[in-house]
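Design request, tokens follow.
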């Protein structure tokens, strides 16, 4: 039927109609392959960024002990975030940390003379709290790579946001009290329901190629640290745990309740090292500072408890290959291909601005990598990225319809740049500079996003003032070909050397062998590891 439809369409168009369509297609391809476009003619942005971009006003308000206050006079909301260090959490408890996080705010409460079951507690919170999150890691900052997950994974964070009124302010602090001092894990049915819900989510997630690829990549990144919590909290280990619990819920009842309570006590003990961050209109907080002060004092008092001394013992960690120049993993459910090629090297602070701009230059629309992969129809996404926290440089190619062509085109593009066979485009580099300003500004454009930056500044010491200075530095950047070529040579060339970099490739299970042959034939890579079952490989 399809062939018949095509034949009918060809007959209806005739020779002239077919020629017209061919000319239009050729013109579209020609336009796509142009090295320069109108975006390169965007004028230099104004130097006084704060006056032109109208970012929400926020400033560091005071330096009280163990508390950061960020003042935004125009805000009607306050976001409260409590950071609790979780260093040296015993290995057997790390595995249950995600379950603990999911259950917090969804269990019964018994605090002093207050008794609330799960449903009453949830209803009470919903009256005052606009958003609530519990996590044992932080999402990447605007200047960190989104490909590298589990930043600050050994810091437990509880975040609440509410309207700034006297009554709700007091209630919000009380909710912190309830979950920290009054949480009770006494309803096994609620725990199992949470396990079943999360297991369903993980099963669906693990059928997605991008999720598998990114999860395994981060397992490789963390493999050099045998004590990293990521080995226990990644989606593969969690799927194994939840499957075990859901198959025999009664068998593991006492073990689950015991471990959840031990985590609660561990957090309680570590309240002596906690850090509190508040963002919003601080006039309300300053006028009622005794409410926060009483809470902080109570945290210190409650932390004076004795808990089981069960420090992390030295382990061998997961047996994840890191020396192989290439690893190919298979997925039965994924037809697209995914590639991440990465190298570790120190990222110098003085190179930071130039590297940000070069990154955007390489993968921006109609940029070198975009043209090589997406314009030619080989893949849907391609990116050059870096992470200064982990000293990582990477090339990512996603949703490849033709993985071999996408990989070859991307590598050839980078090689030509390093060897100066492809000239830099000054206009497009200016456009990349402007794009970098706009991208960072977008992350600071709303109070919610700006608050996230302020909260993470406690962890990564990158304050809101540094972001503002960074924007000014990017905006004052001027094109210097010699300097940019040095940046490309320093940070791009390692990705072309198999001794300095590694590649992780995900393809359909049936294409693993032909992908291995491709790497050997085209790039001479002999040492390639094939992994058909990622979950078994990581969790055996």
């Amino acid at each position: 039927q399809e062939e018949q439809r095509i034949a009918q369409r060809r007959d209806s168009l005739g020779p002239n109609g077919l020629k017209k369509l061919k000319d239009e297609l050729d013109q579209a391809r020609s336009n796509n392959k142009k090295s320069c476009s109108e975006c390169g003619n965007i004028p230099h942005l104004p130097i006084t960024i704060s006056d032109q971009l109208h970012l929400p006003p926020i400033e560091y308000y005071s330096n009280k002990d163990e508390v950061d206050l960020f003042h935004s006079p125009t805000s009607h909301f306050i976001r409260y975030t409590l950071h609790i260090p979780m260093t040296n959490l015993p290995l057997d408890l790390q595995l249950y940390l995600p379950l603990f996080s999911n259950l917090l705010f969804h269990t019964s409460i018994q605090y002093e003379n207050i008794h609330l079951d799960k449903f009453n507690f949830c209803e009470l919170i919903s009256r005052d709290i606009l958003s609530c999150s519990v996590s044992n890691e932080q999402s990447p900052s605007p200047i960190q790579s989104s490909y590298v997950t589990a930043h600050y994974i050994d810091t437990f964070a509880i975040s609440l946001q509410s309207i700034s009124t006297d009554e709700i302010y007091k209630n919000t602090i009380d909710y912190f009290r309830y979950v920290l001092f009054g949480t009770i894990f006494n309803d096994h049915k609620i725990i199992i329901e949470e396990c079943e819900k999360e297991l369903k989510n993980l099963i669906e997630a693990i059928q997605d190629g991008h999720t598998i690829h990114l999860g395994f990549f981060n397992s490789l990144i963390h493999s050099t640290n045998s004590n990293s919590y990521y080995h226990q909290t990644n989606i593969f280990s969690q799927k194994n745990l939840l499957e075990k619990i859901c198959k025999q819920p009664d068998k593991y009842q006492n073990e689950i309740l015991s471990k959840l309570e031990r985590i609660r006590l561990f957090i309680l003990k570590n309240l002596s090292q906690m850090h509190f961050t508040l963002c919003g209109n601080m006039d309300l907080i300053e006028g009622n500072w005794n409410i926060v002060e009483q809470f902080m004092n109570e945290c210190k008092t409650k932390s004076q408890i004795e808990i089981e001394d069960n420090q992390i013992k030295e382990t061998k960690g997961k047996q994840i290959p890191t020396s192989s120049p290439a690893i190919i993993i298979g997925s039965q459910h994924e037809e697209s291909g995914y590639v991440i090629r990465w190298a570790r090297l120190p990222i110098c602070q003085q190179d930071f601005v130039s590297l940000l701009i070069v990154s955007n230059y390489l993968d921006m629309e109609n940029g070198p990598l975009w043209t090589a992969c997406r314009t030619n129809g080989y893949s849907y996404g391609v990116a050059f990225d870096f992470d200064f926290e982990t000293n990582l440089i990477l090339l990512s190619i996603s949703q490849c319809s033709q993985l071999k062509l996408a990989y070859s085109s991307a590598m050839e593009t980078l090689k030509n740049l390093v060897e100066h066979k492809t000239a830099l485009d000054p206009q497009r580099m200016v456009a990349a500079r402007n794009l970098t300003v706009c991208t960072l500004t977008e992350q600071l454009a709303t109070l919610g996003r700006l608050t996230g930056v302020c909260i993470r500044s406690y962890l990564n010491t990158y304050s809101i003032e540094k972001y503002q200075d960074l924007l000014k530095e990017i905006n004052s950047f001027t094109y210097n070909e010699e300097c940019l070529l040095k940046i490309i040579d320093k940070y791009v060339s390692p990705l072309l050397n198999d001794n300095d970099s590694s590649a992780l490739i995900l393809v359909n299970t049936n294409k693993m062998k032909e992908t291995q042959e491709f790497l050997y034939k085209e790039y001479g890579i002999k040492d390639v590891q094939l992994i058909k079952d990622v979950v078994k490989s990581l969790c055996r």
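Comment from the thread starter after seeing the answer: thanks! The first strand starts at residue 59 and ends at 64.
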